[in-house]
Amino acid sequence: MRGHFLEKPSAVALTLLACGLAVVSCSVGHSETQPVQPVLVSYAPPSAAVQRAEAILRKRAPRLTAGERRGVAEALAGAEIEHGLDALLVLALIDQESRYDPRARGPKGSLGLMQVRPFVGREVAKRHNIAWQGSRTLLDPVLNVRIGQAYLAEMKRMFRRDELALTAYNMGPYRLKRILAQGRALRSRYAARVLKRYVALQRQFPLGRLAEAL
After folding, report:
1. How far apart (Å, rounded) are the C-alpha atoms in residues 64 and 66?
2. Distance from chain centroid for Cα 127
3. Alpha-carbon Rg for the chain in angstroms
């Protein structure tokens, strides 16, 4: 018997010994009712909406970093679920408002990709639990888009139609309500331009040929 213990252990024995030590070391400090759970790392591929938004931003928004493009694309995809907004419609609005420039400043104090005015941004951020740190918040591309599309969604709920929601986004809901209440003809070149850009994006970046745009 003693001679067998002095023999060189086999590879299988060493493997079993190592596994046993690993089990013992993992169980130290943990009760039997709370076994150690392995950490599983999984990779979820980006959705088609995120991929398409990123593809558009790569071509149209060179001022954004790769991280900012991904953040904006994810915010756009999230808005489709949370607010029922078409990501392409928001991108068309961004194109009209700022030409995808995250540092754009308008003549009336509007800022960023979606040209949100600070006093509007502050109230929208408050209503939607978005962190607000003064007007500089709107120079963060991701926060700007989250706030801007939340405001657009409010206009959509208020006026139902895309054309009216876009017009309200541009001129303000109260002014639009006065025009409609007075029965005046509504001529919104702004909404027409955004919708024209929207149709162009649909044609240039169809989901069926998404791989060609990437």
Report:
1. 7
2. 18
3. 27
Distance, first Cα to last Cα, the chain = 69
The whole-angstrom separation of Cα 166 and Cα 168 is: 5
Q: Which domains does the chain have, with CATH numbers?
A: 49-213 (1.10.530.10)
pTM of the complete model: 0.74
Q: Rounded CA gap, 169 and 116, in Å?
A: 9
For 96, the token pair is 């009209």
Between helices 87-98 and 66-82, what is the axis angle to 10°?
Answer: 130
* Amino acid letter, 93: L
Say whether 201 sits in a helix, a strand or coil. helix
**Cβ atoms 130, 149 nearer than 8 A:** no
Each residue's pLDDT tens digit, 155-205: 999 999 999 999 999 999 999 999 999 888 787 899 999 999 999 999 998
- Nearest-angstrom CA–CA distance, 202 and 70: 20
The DSSP letter of residue 86 is -
**What phi and psi, each to the nearest 5 degrees, are found at residue 138?**
-75, -10
